[in-house]
């Protein structure tokens, strides 16, 4: 708790996340600021000669309030752990805060004009972004989070991937129907006309077409694309990855996509029987391919190391011979000089 400079107001905060503003004249509660912080309030302090006050909480932030108008002025972010204590300089120009992240921060007052409406709008936008973030089982307090905000590039990639999956399924159905027709008639019929997009990608194979579409997605946008891929397309996408694995294509890409999709849709995948055979197949095939890739990389590293040693050994020989030649020349030169000195002496 803290008392204002004129002994007119008392502000109190507690673990219930609320701030109460009391009148010392009548002992009544002037205002009840509900959920002033996301977690419990640990400290607060009035600014000298004003009715402004700061609060610090376990949610790692410091907030400034107006006790007369009962409005939040601004939010100060920077600490990585709960704010333990704070103090304001006598002239009110400096705020010092200490936190359990073992840091002390000094905040200085500026002459910048602060518009409350703009600050409130900015906070509403930030809250909206947080609400849009999908909930992933087991993901708590991640320092590096997933790309949660939809960008135009992410939306474009999701639309392209959904379109490619639909075209792939249509083309596979056309090929199966063509195969059945050929078996019924007993002779080979002309292949069906491929989709125009397959022609645009210079291929007539649906699996090669969707492989090119997936490879065109930037690595930085891949997880965001998979994050917003509708769940009814996840099974089809995993089946496509299984086809890649059967052909030995894109081992690293398949492992990355499959692991990410299983992680973010774990609960739904676990409760659906349709996913089990696909996941089992991916697990067996991917494990074997990953181990093979690891062994191949290890073999290449050893071969490269041995080759480097051989090159170094070859380069060391002329270096040592040149050093020996230099030493021999120096010895001959010093010997000649010694002989000259002896002759001149006698």
Features:
single chain; 346 residues; alpha+beta; Methylamine Dehydrogenase, Chain H; 3 domains; four-stranded antiparallel β-sheet; 9 helices; 11 strands; 17% strand; flat; disordered C terminus
Précis, in short:
The chain has helices spanning 116-132, 152-185, 196-200, 206-215, 219-227, 234-247, 251-264, 266-271, 275-345; strands spanning 2-3, 9-13, 19-23, 29-33, 41-46, 52-57, 61-66, 71-77, 83-88, 94-99, 104-108.
Structure description:
The protein is an alpha+beta fold. It folds into 3 domains: 2-123, YVTN repeat-like/Quinoprotein amine dehydrogenase (Methylamine Dehydrogenase, Chain H, 7 Propeller); 150-224; 230-336. It is built from 9 helices and 11 strands. It has helices at residues 116-132, 152-185, 196-200, 206-215, 219-227, 234-247, 251-264, 266-271, 275-345; strands spanning 2-3, 9-13, 19-23, 29-33, 41-46, 52-57, 61-66, 71-77, 83-88, 94-99, 104-108. Helix 5 packs parallel to helix 7 (251-264) and helix 7 packs across helix 9 (275-345).
């Amino acid at each position: 708790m803290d008392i204002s400079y004129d002994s007119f107001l008392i502000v109190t905060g507690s673990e219930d996340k609320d701030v109460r503003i009391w009148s010392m004249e009548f002992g009544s509660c002037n205002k009840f600021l509900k959920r002033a912080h996301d977690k419990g309030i640990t400290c607060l302090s009035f600014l000298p000669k004003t009715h402004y006050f700061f609060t610090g909480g376990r949610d790692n932030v410091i907030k400034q309030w107006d006790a007369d108008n009962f409005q939040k002025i601004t939010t100060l972010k920077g600490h990585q752990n709960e704010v333990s204590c704070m103090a304001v300089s006598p002239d009110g120009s400096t705020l010092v805060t200490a936190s359990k992240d073992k840091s002390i921060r000094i905040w200085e007052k500026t002459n910048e004009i602060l518009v409350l409406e703009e600050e409130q709008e900015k906070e509403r936008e930030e809250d909206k972004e947080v609400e849009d973030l999908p909930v992933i089982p087991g993901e708590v307090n991640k320092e590096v989070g997933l790309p949660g905000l939809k960008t135009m590039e992410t939306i474009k990639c999701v639309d392209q991937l959904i379109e490619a999956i639909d075209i792939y399924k249509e083309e596979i159905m056309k090929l199966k129907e063509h195969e059945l027709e050929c078996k019924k008639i007993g002779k080979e019929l002309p292949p069906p006309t491929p989709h125009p997009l397959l022609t645009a990608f210079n291929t007539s194979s649906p699996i090669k077409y969707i492989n090119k579409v997936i490879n065109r997605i930037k690595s930085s946008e891949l997880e965001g694309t998979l994050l917003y891929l509708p769940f009814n397309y996840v099974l089809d996408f995993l089946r496509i990855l299984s086809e890649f694995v059967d052909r030995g294509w894109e081992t690293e890409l398949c492992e990355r996509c499959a692991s990410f999709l299983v992680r973010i849709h774990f609960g739904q995948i676990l409760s659906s029987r349709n996913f089990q055979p696909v996941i089992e197949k991916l697990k067996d095939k991917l494990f074997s391919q990953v181990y093979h890739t690891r062994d191949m990389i290890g073999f290449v590293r050893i071969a490269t190391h041995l080759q480097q040693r051989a090159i170094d050994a070859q380069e060391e020989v002329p270096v040592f011979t040149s050093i020996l030649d230099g030493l021999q020349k120096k010895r001959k030169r010093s010997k000649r000089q010694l002989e000259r000195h002896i002759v001149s002496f006698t």
